[in-house]
Write a structure and sequence with these properties.
single chain, 102 residues, 3 strands, binds zinc ion
Length: 102
């Protein structure tokens, strides 16, 4: 969770928490991505996706620092072209339908 500080009076304070690999996370995969299929947007066919986040306002009462902050919660990937939120299940279903055709 990335945290953006709204307070402007303390610019040196490190608000972005260091991302550390948590225990139990999948190991680094040794896969040649050149041999993997490109995923395209089911709606428009674009291959570029952007991280989509919901922003949560944390009021001074809720904030551990006592200052209002904004937290970003990543919800998935959106197509850079049509802004559709990518749904892996829909994509898989469409792929299976395509492959079932003779
Ligand atoms: Zn799209």
């Amino acid at each position: 969770m990335a945290v953006i500080d709204l307070g402007k009076n303390n610019p040196n304070r490190q608000m972005q928490r260091q991302r550390q690999p948590a225990a139990g996370q999948p190991m680094q995969m040794n896969i040649d991505l050149k041999n993997c299929e490109d995923i395209m947007c089911p709606s428009c066919g674009s291959e570029i996706f952007i991280d989509a986040s919901k922003l949560k306002y944390i009021s001074p009462l809720q904030s551990p620092t006592g200052k209002p902050t904004v937290a970003a919660v990543v919800v998935g990937k959106v197509c850079a072209s049509c802004n559709e939120l990518f749904n892996p299940d829909v994509w898989k279903r469409l792929k299976e339908l395509k492959e079932e055709k003779p």
